[in-house]
Amino acid sequence: MTDNTNASADLPDRLSTDPRSPFYNAEVLQRDVGIRFKGAEKTNVEEYCVSEGWVKVPAGAAKDRYGNPLLIKLSGPVEPYFRD
C-alpha cells in the first residue's frame, strides 16, 4: 500500500487524456494511471483534479459538433495512482 502512496506523489494535481489540453502529459499517461473516485475504481475518466476534487467523464454517447465526447464534471474525493 505504501508503494501506491509514494507513486501518487509523482502524479500531477491535474491530468488530462486529451492531447490538446494544457494538462496533458504523455510521459505520465504511459505508466497506466488509475483513478479512484469516491472509493470506486473509474476507468472512463478523461480529466481529473485532486485539489479541486473533480473528474470529467463522458456523458454517454453524446458528441459535440467536432466529434469529441461531451463530458460531465463529477465532484468528490479523487485518488490517482499508478497501476504498475
Describe this structure in words.
By secondary structure, this protein is mainly beta. The protein has one domain. The chain contains two helices and seven strands. The longest helix has 8 residues. The chain is globular. It comes from Tardiphaga robiniae. This is DUF3297 family protein. Keywords: Oxidoreductase, Peroxidase.
Helix content: 10-25%
> Per the principal axes of the C-alpha atoms, what is the gross shape?
globular
Q: Low-confidence segments, ≥5 residues, pLDDT <50?
A: none
One letter per element, helices H and strands E, the order comes to: HEHEEEEEE
- Total of helices: 2
| Largest sheet strand order | 1-4-5-6
Major sheet summary line: 4 strands, antiparallel
Overall tally of domains: 1
Task: Provide the residue-averaged pLDDT.
Answer: 90
Q: What is the beta-strand fraction?
A: 35-45%
Beginning-to-end CA distance, first to last residue: 12 Å
Q: Radius of gyration from the CA trace?
A: 13 Å
Secondary structure class reads mainly beta
Please report the total strand number as a whole number: 7
